[in-house]
Amino acid sequence: MPVSEFLVVGGGVIGMMTTLQLADAGHSVTLLERGDCGREASWAGGGIVSPLYPWRYSAPISRLSTWSEGSYPELALRLLEETGIDPEYRQKGLLYLRVDDEARAMAWARDVGKPLERVDADFLYAKEPQAAPGLAEALWMPTLGSIRNPRLVRALRARLAAMPRVTLREQCEVTGFEWAGGRISAVRTASGGVSGGQVIVCGGAWAAGLLERVDVRLPVRPVKGQMILFKAPPGLVKRVVLMDGRYVIPRADGRVLAGSTLEECGFDKSATSEARESLWHSAVTIIPALADCEVEHHWAGLRPGSPDGVPFIGTVPGVDNLSVNAGHYRNGLVLAPASTRVLVDLLLGREPILDPAPYRVAR
């Protein structure tokens, strides 16, 4: 097997978008995934293409988010055309109910030029007739979009599988690195060594454990999130609605996701009855009619938590050919297009779309 110019470790949305951009630029890439591509946090999340409360995040996250939001409609259309799989990008806006820092939100919107307005009850219930009753007002962000992330990762995988410069190796867990002279000479896997030029770790919640094997300490930890899915009639919920830190997200077929929890419990991915009950109560508080709908699924995923939610993007100090893109916390899918583009720009010697300094590994 010929040696690839790039080895990408981790087949979530970050790893697959990195691979896609490198292959688009004419480079050979081998993607190594311990399970099936896109089946961890990328599959488990909700698919809102924005931080939940964007005004509460730092400027580095906002810059990545803004760039990514603008790229998702084009990416979704591209993948549909190339694969026949529709990622179901929907721009129906978002209604914020009971926001306690409205002044901060409005100031942020003015600063970044984002449409956000206070709306009255008539507007709110015209947009979302089934929303929690008795509210006098809400905040409305008309530009927010969402994407059906399980279909997005299926489409990404299908596209990569069809690209001649890409080699997908699933069920291929990385167990270590051959490291000599300040370089990675090979990646060790359960089925043998894999050689390549540049190595990129996109391992999500597992990234820190991978980098420990080359004596690099990355402050990324797993943070569990649980979600439930209602089988609802189409049109019951029309757009994303957010209240008290919990949200409901409609899909085109009527199903409604409700999430999510934040739990510090290591690599435990078990779904608990306590979380299910809490999520159900939050969902039916936001949309009371969901109480009459069946809960079809309940699952958990592990986010790659970082100290300030800002991902680590760039070369790893002390290792010439090793880079990382991890630590996106709750915003992996939100930030994926921009964060992968920043890293690919750096690797290929292009002018980065954003200043990479706030994301460097040694910050």
Automatic annotation (TrEMBL):
Gene Ontology terms: cellular component: cytoplasm
Keywords: Oxidoreductase, Thiamine biosynthesis
Gene Ontology molecular-function annotations: flavin adenine dinucleotide binding; oxidoreductase activity
Pfam families: DAO (PF01266)
GO biological process: thiamine biosynthetic process; thiamine diphosphate biosynthetic process
Pathway(s) per entry: Cofactor biosynthesis; thiamine diphosphate biosynthesis
Superkingdom of origin organism: Bacteria
Database matches in Gene3D superfamilies: D-Amino Acid Oxidase, subunit A, domain 2 (3.30.9.10), FAD/NAD(P)-binding domain (3.50.50.60)
Limits of the FAD dependent oxidoreductase domain: 6-346
Entry's transmembrane regions: none
InterPro entries assigned to the protein according to its UniProt record, in alphabetical order: FAD-dep_OxRdtase, FAD/NAD-bd_sf, Gly_oxidase_ThiO
UniProt xrefs under NCBIfam families: thiamin_ThiO
PANTHER family: GLYCINE OXIDASE, SARCOSINE DEHYDROGENASE-RELATED
Record protein name field: Glycine oxidase ThiO
Organism field: Halomonas heilongjiangensis
